[in-house]
Specification:
Elements: H1 21-53, H2 56-59, H3 68-83, H4 93-108, H5 116-119, E1 126-127, E2 132-133
Antiparallel strand pairs: 1-2
Amino acid sequence: MVGYANRTTEEGGGGMSGKNDFLAKISAAKAVGFQAGLVSGRQQILDMMTLVLCDPEIMGSNILDKDSLPKVVEGIDEYIKKYELAWVKHNETDHVQSQLDKNLAEVYGEKLKDSFHVRYPYAPEYDYVKGKWI
């Protein structure tokens, strides 16, 4: 189970043109930092979720057994891979973001009040009027 979140995300679009080495290095450093935060955050969520789902004080008699827990973690890992483009600049970012909202709305119904960009204010968003990422 440990290490499910350790994977890379391919970022598309929005890169540096390579004309300025300093800016290219800064951009590369930012990308590495972003990727490190993404991987660490994913692993932290999986670790904390594992502890919660096995804690009888939190879950009562609904705790997951050692056979069920890996299935849940593997399922979460699959969803992470399915929606990972929602948080990077890519030509499918807006589609993946809206698909995530749609699928969450099917689960939560009226209780899902906030759209993707309200829940994730720092996620990339493409402005089709201006033709650039905001």
